[in-house]
C-alpha cells in the first residue's frame, strides 16, 4: 500500500467522501489501470491539495506504488533533490504566478534524473500555459480543485503507452456466506458476457482445492490456475495461454486443480504476475473468489475493478453482506460501490428476508434477484452446462445478462438476424 510521511490533514476525509460520490456516478467504460511499482513524491502548498493526495495514495490502484507527501511546493522540491536522486514521478503545486512557476521548474530541472516525470497542479485554466509546460518537459498539468481520482488517472496515464491496448476489466464474485451459489453466478455471468456482448472473457477459478468451474463447463484441463500461482517466475503470455481451456465462443477457463494433495498458503504477491498477464491480454476477467478472508482472498476482492456479492435472503447473509459493503466502501473510496445479487430466492418452506429489507440495510437495490429452481440448476450442474443452455427463457438467464450488461456497460451485440439481409436469408432457407 502506498505510504505517506506527512501528518493527516483535516480535508482528507472530505476529499474521500466526494470521491466516493463521484466514483459511484462514473460510467463503467471509464477504466483507470493500476500503477506499476514506482516511487512518487508530492510537494503541496495547500492543505486542500494535500488532502486529495492522501486520498489518492490510499487508492487500490496505487497499492504497488510508494507515494510520499511533503509540504512546501516547488521550493521544497528543489531543495529536496539537490543532494538526492529523484523518484519516478514528482508532483508539485504551482505557485501563484507563471514567472514563479517557470523559474521553479527550471531550478528543479537542474537536479532531476533522466526519466523522472513531473506533474504540475495549478489554478490557471490556460491552454497556452499548458502547451508551454509540455514544451518544457512537464508530463501533465491538472487544474485545481482536483479529486483523488483525477490524480490517480493522471499518474496511471503516465505509465500507459498511447498505442497500448486497453487493459481488461476484472469482476470479483464473492459469497456473503458459503453455499449461496456464488460460483454458479460467476460462471453464468461470464458465459453471458461472452455470448451476448462479444467480449473475450476468462473465468479464473481461485478456489484451488474445491473449485467447480471445471465441472460446470464439463472441462478437465491438466493445467490451470495453480500452475501459474505456484510458479510466478514462469508466468508470461505464452505460459498463461497454455493454461487456458476453451469452453465456449469467446470464453476461456483458468481452472482450479480441485485436489487436496497440498495446501495453498499463498501471498497476495503470488497473484500479481498472473493478473497482470490476464489484464493485458483479455478484455474481461471474472474471478471466482472462494469464501475465505485470507490476505490473498481479501486482496483479490479489493483489487478488482468491480465487486459482485452473492447473498441468500437470510439473516446471516444480510449481516455478512453489510460488513462487506462497509469494508469495501471504506477501502475503495474512489471506486464504484459494490453490487449484490440475491440468489436462491423463493425456496419452499424457508423463511426469507424481503428484497426491500436487504436494500434498506445495504443502502442499495440488488442488481438482480435470482429465483430458486432446484431442478433447473441441478440439471445444469450435473450435465456440465450453463443455465442458458438448459432453459434459455428462464428468468435467471435474463438476470445473468443484466449483471453482465451492468458490469461491462455494453449493449448486446447485433446478430445477423437483425441485419438488412436477414429477410433474404430467411426466404432462401425457406426455398
Chain-wise SSE layout:
Elements: H1 12-25, E1 39-44, H2 47-57, E2 66-71, H3 73-80, E3 89-93, H4 98-109, E4 117-122, H5 127-135, E5 140-143, H6 148-158, E6 169-175, H7 182-196, E7 201-205, H8 213-216, H9 225-230, H10 237-243, E8 245-248, E9 251-254, H11 272-281, E10 284-288, H12 295-302, E11 306-311, H13 315-331, E12 339-345, H14 355-362, E13 368-371, H15 374-383, H16 387-390, H17 395-408, H18 422-430
Parallel strand pairs: 1-2, 1-3, 3-4, 4-5, 6-10, 6-11, 7-9, 7-10, 11-12, 12-13
Antiparallel strand pairs: 8-9
Helix pairs in contact: 1-2, 2-6, 3-4, 7-17
What can be said about this structure in brief?
The protein is α/β, with parallel strands linked by helices and 431 residues long. The protein contains 18 helices and 13 strands.
Sum up the structure in keywords.
eight-stranded mixed β-sheet, 41% helix, disordered N terminus, alpha/beta, Rossmann fold, single chain, 18 helices, elongated
Number of strands: 13
Radius of gyration: 25 Å
For the record, the CATH architecture of the largest domain stands as 3-Layer(aba) Sandwich
Uncertain parts: 1-29, 416-422
The helix content, as a percent range, equals: 40-55%
CATH superfamily of the largest domain: P-loop containing nucleotide triphosphate hydrolases
CATH fold-level topology of the largest domain = Rossmann fold
Q: How many structural domains in the coordinates? A: 2
Structural class: alpha/beta
Amino acid at each position: 500500500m502506498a505510504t505517506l510521511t506527512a501528518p493527516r490533514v483535516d480535508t482528507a476525509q472530505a476529499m474521500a467522501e466526494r470521491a466516493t460520490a463521484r466514483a459511484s456516478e462514473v460510467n463503467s467504460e471509464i477504466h483507470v489501470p493500476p500503477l506499476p511499482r514506482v516511487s512518487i513524491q508530492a510537494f503541496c502548498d495547500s492543505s486542500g491539495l494535500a488532502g486529495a493526495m492522501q486520498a489518492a495514495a490510499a487508492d487500490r490502484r496505487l497499492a504497488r506504488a510508494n507515494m510520499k507527501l511533503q509540504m512546501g511546493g516547488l521550493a521544497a522540491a528543489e531543495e529536496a533533490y539537490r543532494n538526492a536522486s529523484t523518484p519516478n514521478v514528482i508532483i508539485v503545486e504551482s505557485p501563484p504566478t507563471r514567472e514563479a512557476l517557470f523559474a521553479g521548474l527550471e531550478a528543479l530541472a537542474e537536479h532531476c534524473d533522466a526519466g523522472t516525470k513531473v506533474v504540475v497542479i495549478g489554478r490557471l485554466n490556460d491552454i497556452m500555459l499548458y502547451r508551454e509546460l509540455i514544451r518544457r518537459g512537464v508530463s501533465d498539468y491538472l487544474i485545481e480543485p482536483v479529486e483523488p481520482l483525477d490524480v490517480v488517472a493522471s499518474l496511471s496515464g503516465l505509465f500507459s503507452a498511447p498505442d497500448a491496448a486497453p487493459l481488461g476489466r476484472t469482476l470479483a464474485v464473492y459469497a456473503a456466506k458459503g453455499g449461496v451459489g456464488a460460483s454458479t453466478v460467476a460462471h453464468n455471468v461470464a458465459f453471458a458476457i461472452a455470448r451476448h456482448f462479444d467480449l473475450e472473457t476468462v473465468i479464473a477459478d481461485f478456489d484451488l482445492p474445491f473449485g467447480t468451474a471445471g465441472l460446470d463447463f464439463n472441462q478437465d484441463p491438466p493445467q490451470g490456475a495453480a500452475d501459474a500461482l505456484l510458479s510466478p517466475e514462469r508466468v508470461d503470455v505464452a505460459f498463461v495461454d497454455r493454461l487456458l481451456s476453451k469452453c465456449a465462443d469467446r470464453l476461456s477457463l483458468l481452472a482450479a486443480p480441485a485436489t487436496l494433495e497440498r495446501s495453498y498458503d499463498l501471498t497476495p504477491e503470488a497473484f500479481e504476475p498472473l493478473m497482470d498477464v490476464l489484464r493485458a491480454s483479455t478484455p474481461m476477467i471474472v474471478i471466482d473468489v472462494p469464501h475465505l478472508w485470507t490476505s490473498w482472498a481479501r486482496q483479490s476482492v479489493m483489487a478488482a475493478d468491480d465487486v459482485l456479492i452473492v447473498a441468500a435472503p437470510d439473516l446471516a447473509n444480510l449481516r455478512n453482506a453489510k460488513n462487506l459493503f462497509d469494508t469495501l466502501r471504506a477501502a475503495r473510496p474512489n471506486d464504484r460501490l459494490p453490487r449484490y445479487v440475491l440468489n436462491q430466492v423463493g425456496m419452499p418452506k424457508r423463511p426469507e428476508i424481503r428484497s426491500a429489507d436487504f436494500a434498506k440495510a445495504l443502502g442499495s437495490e440488488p442488481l438482480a434477484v435470482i429465483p430458486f429452481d432446484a431442478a433447473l440448476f441441478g440439471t445444469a450442474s450435473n450435465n456440465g452446462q450453463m443455465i442458458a443452455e438448459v432453459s434459455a427463457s428462464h428468468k435467471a438467464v435474463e438476470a445473468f445478462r443484466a449483471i453482465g450488461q451492468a458490469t461491462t456497460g455494453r449493449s448486446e451485440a447485433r446478430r445477423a438476424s437483425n441485419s438488412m439481409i436477414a429477410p433474404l436469408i430467411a426466404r432462401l432457407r425457406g426455398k
